[in-house]
């Protein structure tokens, strides 16, 4: 791993796990000093993070962590709940016992990630869990739209579980309910409703987190 890649990974993890909050300034000289290297690899890493959308350059401030557009996140997640609910219902007719076993293992891996406070890993596993299902829906246009929507909200998806850790555990329980319905070949309407509620519960957890923070400030 090059110095630039090392710094990139360090800064990216710090942004996604909430160590560097939205709008926080990233001081290049300070990062270089803390990591014991020159400013060149730090600048290169920050440029890559800027292309990822995680860092924004602002006049008189320099590099700052890109602020989360909460309304856009919620709107996008609600759209995803509709698209993914439909795709999951379609996929339920094509999932094999091997597919179900993989979902069970992924859910176990997610539980272990929560226990070890690996919330970025949890986010990756969560996306893999749902992608493993929708890939079986048989509609490539629908899959493409879902993937585009997921990419749009990728940054918040990975960091929200560190902001609302209880939601991660609830998500695992909801996955278990979904897996059981898939195993039992439940009606497509029931499966679609589970996914929609699953996404809506994430929105509610996100909003409740904001309310609790405001109460603490008051």
TrEMBL record:
Q: Mind telling me which InterPro entries this protein's record contains?
A: GntR_C (IPR011711), TF_FadR/GntR_C (IPR008920), Tscrpt_reg_HTH_GntR (IPR000524), WH-like_DNA-bd_sf (IPR036388), WH_DNA-bd_sf (IPR036390)
GO MF annotation list: DNA binding; DNA-binding transcription factor activity
**Where do the HTH gntR-type domain residues begin and end?**
1-68
Keywords per UniProt? DNA-binding, Transcription, Transcription regulation
Supply the name of the protein.
GntR family transcriptional regulator
Task: Please give the organism.
Answer: Pradoshia eiseniae
Pfam families linked:
FCD (PF07729), GntR (PF00392)
Q: Which CDD domains match?
A: WHTH_GntR
